[in-house]
Amino acid sequence: MRRLSGSLGLLLLAGSFSPRPASAQEAVSPALSVQLTLASALERARSQAPSVLAAAAQTAIAKARRDDAGVSLLPTLSANAGLNAGANKTSRSIDNGGVAGAPTELDAESLNAGAEASLTARWLLWDFGRAAASEEALAAALQAASSDEQTVQRSAVLLVANAYLAVLADQEAVASATQTLEQRTRQHDIARRRVAAQVAAPIEEVRASIAVESARGELSRAAGALRRDKAQLAGAMGLPATAELELERFEVKPVAVTADEAAVLASASRPEVASAKQRLLTAELQVSIAGANHRPSLLLSGSVGPSWQATDAPSSQTSAGANAALVFSLPLIDPSVGAAERVAIAQRSSAGAALEQVRQAVASEAVTAVLDAEQARVSLSIAEQTAKLAAANLVQAEGRYAAGAAPLMELLDAQLQDSLARQALVSQRYQAGRAQFGVIGAIGELGRLFDMAAGG
């Protein structure tokens, strides 16, 4: 009986884990397919990258603050209403007019209730420049936020451009690895036939097989890198990471600019510099705002409204009134004003130092980018020449091996050198393209990148 219950439990357990057909909602949706050119990828990055959308939201907040800057000088109107109730007790002494005896004490109690309502208007006529300075500071803050958004756009565009270039390089690497696998497969067939004809030792076929499997591994790694970089490119553009991307090739054109010219262009065009300038202006205006708190203000206020009052006696009183006042306010002693002014002055000094730091940083980055691009072009030229020589050497080694004039090791070495040379060429092309993009980004002229993407 115990065995039966145990078997039944196993059957029930197996049934509870039995697979069931997936419903329509559980079915995996097909991957999104997107045809891309560099121009469309860059435009998508500039407008739809998640980081750009977040920066645009910050700019919108700064704009809303700027638009509300002048409201402190606008009149305000408020409605007020209230109820009141109370009780009074009054005691009076009445002299008896010289008659013997104590004075007469009279007590009186009363209850009262009332209600009142009013409209109150206030209008700051003149604040001696505080509101104007605040409005200018918020306008400068808006310009700084706009420059920050451009900085984020620059980073997003360069990220997508480099990711696009990486995918193209991966595609070349896959093609190169495929070529290597085809070459080594052909040589494996030759080695197998030579061993079958007993003109070569069996070790040649083993070595040729090892070379084929090595090429398969290289192809697998290249294909994996391609899938990974496509997912990164899709994510950088705000697309699902599983999107199927089809990329169109483009020509990377060199940027004709010297190191000195790049430093000047970076200082003039980079949005980081513009943002730092606006933040310095904002800090200077904050000093003015803090100092303006020592100044007087002129305020016009007025109210109008009825009131009603009743007591426990059969009587009530209703009245209406209006008043107006022109108030001139002059702060005499306020330690917090001086403290705020000292903080604002310190922040201005910090903003000025930050501006100089940004200028030096972008100039240094631009010079470095130009030097890196020059070195990348030299390295690419060497890689191209090496690839040509390695390809010619492989052709010669294949012919010698097929004719029986060279051992297999000579062919395997030539195959390895050819494969490495082609891999180096793919890598150097990518590095050279990335270096050109780096120059464009460092000098802050993304228009050149969009022109390149458009074929201009």
Quick recap of the structure?
The chain is of the alpha+beta class. The protein has helices spanning 2-16, 38-48, 50-67, 130-196, 202-236, 259-269, 271-292, 335-402, 408-443, 446-453; strands at 33-36, 76-94, 104-126, 244-247, 297-311, 316-329. Helices cover 64% and strands 17% of the residues.
Q: What spatial order of strands do you see in the largest sheet? A: 2-3-5-6
Low-confidence stretches: 1-28
The counted number of beta strands is 6
Number of helices: 10
- Look up the CATH topology: Outer membrane efflux proteins (OEP)
User: Which architecture name does CATH use?
Assistant: Up-down Bundle
H and E string = HEHHEEHHEHHEEHHH
**What's the Cα radius of gyration?**
42 Å
For this structure, what is the CATH class? Mainly Alpha
In CATH, what is the homologous superfamily? Outer membrane efflux proteins (OEP)
In words, what does this structure look like?
This protein is an alpha+beta fold and 456 residues long. It has a single domain (33-69, 127-294, 331-453), classed as Outer membrane efflux proteins (OEP). 64% of the residues lie in helices and 17% in strands. The chain has 10 helices and 6 strands. A 4-stranded antiparallel sheet has the order 2-3-5-6, with no helix packed on it. A two-stranded parallel sheet has the order 1-4. A hairpin with a 4-residue loop joins strand 5 (297-311) and strand 6. Helix 3 packs antiparallel against helix 4 (130-196) and helix 4 (130-196) packs antiparallel against helix 5 (202-236). It is elongated and about 150 Å long.
